Amino acid sequence: MLFARAGGLTAWRLLLSLLHFAAWEAGSGQLHYSVPEEAKHGTFVGRIAQDLGLELAELVPRLFRVASKERGDLLEVNLQNGILFVNSRVDREELCGRSAECSIHLEVIVDRPLQIFHVEVKVEDINDNPPVFRGRQQRIFIPENRQLGSRFPIEGAVDADTGANALLIYNLSPNDYFSLDVQASDELSKSLSLELKKSLDREATPELHLLLTATDGGKPELEDTVQLMILVLDVNDNAPVFAQALYRVHLLETVANGTLVTTLNASDADKGVNGEIVFSFGNDGSPNIKEKFKIDSSSGEIRLIDNLDYEEAKSYEIQIKAVDKGSPPMSSHCKVLVKVLDVNDNTPEVVITSRSLPIREDAPFSTIIALIAVSDRDSGVNGEVTCSLTPHVPFKLVSTFKNYYSLVLDSALDRESASDYEVVVTARDGGSPSLWTTATVSVEVADVNDNAPVFAQAEYTVFVKENNPLLVLTLLLYTALRCSAAPTESACGPGKPTLVCSSAVGSWSCSQQRGQRLCSGEGPPKTDLMAFSPGLCPSLSTSERNEYTEANSNLSANMCLELN
Ligand SMILES: *[C@@H]1O[C@H](CO)[C@@H](O)[C@H](O)[C@H]1NC(C)=O
Ligand SMILES: *[C@@H]1O[C@H](CO)[C@@H](O)[C@H](O)[C@H]1NC(C)=O
Ligand SMILES: *[C@@H]1O[C@H](CO)[C@@H](O)[C@H](O)[C@H]1NC(C)=O
């Protein structure tokens, strides 16, 4: 702590100087001491009187005194023993600031004879100042997509000491992401930066807290620590992610318009607009999606905007796109499969495809009367149709093929006891509750000449065309003709009966188109029917026929009869 340097002096003085750790500087007559700063009052600095070659006894008589350009009270000399000591605390930084050299210049004066000595007391730095960071925390903002090797400047610490006491060594707390880079422009001036060693990911590590320690080179060393708070800034590097890649929804075909189909759930790990998701329908998938469904672009709700019909479409495949609002945006897809469930909403249909009516009363069993086709637009049991007939009819249904039936004769007919039947066919589906429909087949029984004639009528109406001179007709009607089947050509000649009248005994028919003919059912005319129209039958003109038709079209009689 205390030393003196020798100049070119005599040997004994050199020896003395070495012993006393003091020395005269060559030529300048200057004495050098050193004292550590912050030394306590009374700290020994040097035997100034002896080093200057003065006797202790002459100090007082020669008015030994010390003057200083700096504060004079820092050092003082004990006139009894000639020792220079610390009088009041010396703060190097206060005295000299940060300059590397710091000393106190003393002028020692004695009289008789007047002598002036120059004494330099070097104030030695002690490590009395720790390194100091400005603030307890430094915030560093780094976008997450920065390249490896990127550098981010940070502030170092300052140390008010000098030399080794101010020589700072920095240390960064262990971490995966950053290393400390120290660029030294000179021993005491360093630029610090963090160098990126591992890619940042805000979604994984939004913040990093590191500790930076600065340690000086004093003994003992002093240190300071600052917290480096690294805030990772978001970059749109995450696409939206759907909670499910596929959403399956089952909807009854009868659900109301507006029904919620499903709510999509997607998340985006990015922050702010980078993580805001917009939902929309993709362009692939089933056609007409936009006419059946709508999607809420922000909530992801999908709703029906139409009615469903299983018979129209059994399922829908909806492609969904989620796009974030980042720039550039990132997107992802998912799919919604809507399965439409059948409901028994369709009534069976019955179609009578052909019929051979009327049926002869002597028709054999199993004669086919009508073909019946049933159908139901529903599927599964809802579309399974069973057919039934009104009970107690002489017919039955025979299934010919799935959903095709024949209505066939099942027991003997007798026109005289039942001349027609209203056969009700009921088609019922297997839904629950089941739906059903009916169709009616009117079965007319055609007469066969299996009964003796009976008188049925005693009133006759005779039409006579008076202005036709040719025409003298007498009709004697002994009996009535029951027409129970369509007359055929063989029975009645050309033409068909077009007028049917009913009487108490049954249906009657007669020809308006051919004069002098009375028609009966199939087979030869009844022998008990007599009509007279001598020689005129084949030659009636068209106009004449029409006239007759008009005249006879409004028969008031209970039976049909035509006379020319
Ligand atoms: C969406 O999914 C996330 C997880 O992916 C879950 O925590 C959240 O509850 C879901 N929200 C809804 C409405 O289903
Ligand atoms: C279903 O509802 C929407 C409004 O929510 C309406 O525009 C549409 O016409 C409705 N469709 C049917 C078939 O009722
Ligand atoms: C036809 O008969 C109806 C009554 O059945 C009668 O009112 C009408 O006048 C008649 N027409 C002719 C042309 O005789």
Structure report:
It is a single chain. With 564 residues, the protein is mostly beta strands. It has five domains: 2-124, Cadherins (Immunoglobulin-like, Sandwich); 127-234, Immunoglobulin-like; 240-341, Immunoglobulin-like (Sandwich); 349-446, Cadherins (Immunoglobulin-like); 451-564, no CATH class. It contains seven helices and 36 strands. The strands form eleven sheets. The protein has a five-stranded mixed beta sheet, with no helix packed on it. The longest helix is centred in the last third of the chain and has 11 residues, at 542-552. The radius of gyration is 66 Å and the shape is rod-shaped. The structure holds 2-acetamido-2-deoxy-beta-D-glucopyranose (3 copies). One 2-acetamido-2-deoxy-beta-D-glucopyranose binds at residues 554, 556.
Provide keyphrases for this structure.
564 residues, mainly beta, Immunoglobulin-like, five-stranded mixed sheet, four-stranded mixed sheet, 7 helices, disordered C terminus, binds 2-acetamido-2-deoxy-beta-D-glucopyranose
